[in-house]
């Protein structure tokens, strides 16, 4: 066994790197473990946020070039997907310069590459070599759930882990799954020129979003020629390029060249020998975690996807901040993890930004609230930019409790509303803010103005007239 470390971090994704990086900078003896050098950076760098947003960037350039034809600019040609792939790889490699084993070792961190498993409550082994630490962080992430359908062995099936390596743009893409990955990539490939069909099991896609918000995106997707089949599933693949799809009781054959499977995620817990460390799992195989992100072994914490909650890079960052903070607080002052002000963005066109408490959560908690809705077609900048969108806010006592926005660049426009929610900033502060005209973020003030307009009751008007 090697000399003990202060902390061992298993998994070098967003959450693991946040904890390992801080502890290393603070002067602690850190051991970082991941399977191989290219796995460092986690799903976000290798298969998720970075490659998908690079693809979406190129796809939007292609869409805008086509849209310019109405003004006399003619765009011709077919997307060279090898160049798209090269662009994605270039951006990944640029980020990878500071996310690799050699770089972390140069910062003073111990890095071991290989498969880790527990050998005791505070010990892990990698390729037969044992390591020990006061605390251990599990940040092993998740992977795509495999698609199991009769006949699938004859079909080319891609996931978010493989689709960015395509040599050619598929002429016809069949997307199975209506979550953020499927919708984002499906629309991006449509912008690049693929014919896209999306199979959605439920009555709407993006299950975390309200039907009202998701409906705006659905209208845009259908306008662009994306075919969405709701309450549907693939019954079987009957050929290399054919699928039998059941939709609301009826069957049809859908043709395709490539299938993108995006039907959920599987947590990476197998092979860790959790039982040797006294770490319990529930009936579904999920690690049992308390509100401080500790396992049943109080020396072992979880961070990121493996915590079994929200699977976002910034959720892992939230976990990391809670864990790090609690390391240095007296036990009675430990903070619990809370998702009440968490936000996320679906990077479609238009984007969807959602944050805080949902209407369903507010109802379940019995929290009184008012619902405020603002349509972008009442905003001057949105009219100029031909930007469809909608903002829904849940408010109480001059505070934003949560909300959703669908619109171009919604992820950026909603940031001050997200800050108002997380910091408890009153609506009045936003109402009194002077927004340069015609910035797109004026939609926030326009919406809040509707709330203040309610205060002009007949009684208030009489008072104002008397004062005047």
Query: Describe the biggest sheet?
Result: 7 strands, mixed
> Approximately how much helix is present in the residues?
25-40%
Strand proportion: 15-25%
How many DSSP helices? Answer: 15
Global outline? globular
Tally of strands? 22
Computed Rg: 25 Å
Mean pLDDT, all residues: 95
Q: Give the N-to-C terminal Cα separation.
A: 83 Å
- By secondary-structure content and strand pairing, the structural class works out as alpha/beta
Q: Which stretches are poorly predicted, pLDDT < 50 over at least 5 residues? A: none
Tell me what you see in this structure.
The protein is of the alpha/beta class. Strands 1, 2, 3, 4, 5, 6 and 17 form a seven-stranded mixed sheet that branches. A five-stranded parallel sheet has the order 8-15-9-10-11. A five-stranded antiparallel sheet has the order 18-19-22-21-20, with helices on both faces.
């Amino acid at each position: 066994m090697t000399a003990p470390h202060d902390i061992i971090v298993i998994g070098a994704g967003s959450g693991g790197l946040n904890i390992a990086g801080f502890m290393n900078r603070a002067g602690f003896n850190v051991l970082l473990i991941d399977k191989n050098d290219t796995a460092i950076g986690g799903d976000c760098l290798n298969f998720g946020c970075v490659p998908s947003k690079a693809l979406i960037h190129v796809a939007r350039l292609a869409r805008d070039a086509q849209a310019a034809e109405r003004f006399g600019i003619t765009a011709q040609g077919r997307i060279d997907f090898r160049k798209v792939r090269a662009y994605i790889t270039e951006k990944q490699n640029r980020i990878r310069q500071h996310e690799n084993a050699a770089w972390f070792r140069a910062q003073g961190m111990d890095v071991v590459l290989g498969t880790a498993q527990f050998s005791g409550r505070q010990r892990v082994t990698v390729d037969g070599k044992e390591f020990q630490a006061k605390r251990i962080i599990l940040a092993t992430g998740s992977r795509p759930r495999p698609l199991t359908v009769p006949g699938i062995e004859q079909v080319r099936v891609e996931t978010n882990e493989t689709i960015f390596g395509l040599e050619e743009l598929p002429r016809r893409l069949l997307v199975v799954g209506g979550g953020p990955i499927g919708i984002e990539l499906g629309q991006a490939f449509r912008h690049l020129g693929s014919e896209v069909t999306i199979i959605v099991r439920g009555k709407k896609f993006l299950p975390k979003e309200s039907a009202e918000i998701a409906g705006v995106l659905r209208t845009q997707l259908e306008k662009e020629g994306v075919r969405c089949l709701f309450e549907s599933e693939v019954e079987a693949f009957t050929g290399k390029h054919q699928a039998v799809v059941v939709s609301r009781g009826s069957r049809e054959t859908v043709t395709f060249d490539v299938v993108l499977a995006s039907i959920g995620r599987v947590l990476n817990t197998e092979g860790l020998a959790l039982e040797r460390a006294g770490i319990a799992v529930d009936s579904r195989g999920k690690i049992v975690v308390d509100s401080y992100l500790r396992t049943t072994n109080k020396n072992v914490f979880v961070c990121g996807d493996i915590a079994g909650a929200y699977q976002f890079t910034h959720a892992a960052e939230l976990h990391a901040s809670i864990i790090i903070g609690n390391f240095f607080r007296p036990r009675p002052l430990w903070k619990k993890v809370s998702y009440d002000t968490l936000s996320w963005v679906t990077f479609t066109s238009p984007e969807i930004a959602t944050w805080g408490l949902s209407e369903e959560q507010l109802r379940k908690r019995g929290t009184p609230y008012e619902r405020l809705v603002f349509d972008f077609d009442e905003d001057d900048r949105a009219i100029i930019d031909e930007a469809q969108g909608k903002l829904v806010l849940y408010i109480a006592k001059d505070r934003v409790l949560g909300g959703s926005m669908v619109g171009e660049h919604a992820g950026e426009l909603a940031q001050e509303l997200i800050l108002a929610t997380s910091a408890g900033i009153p609506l009045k502060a936003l109402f009194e803010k002077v927004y340069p005209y015609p910035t797109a973020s004026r939609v926030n003030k326009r919406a809040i103005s509707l709330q203040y307009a309610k205060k002009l009751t007949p009684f208030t008007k009489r008072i104002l007239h008397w004062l005047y």
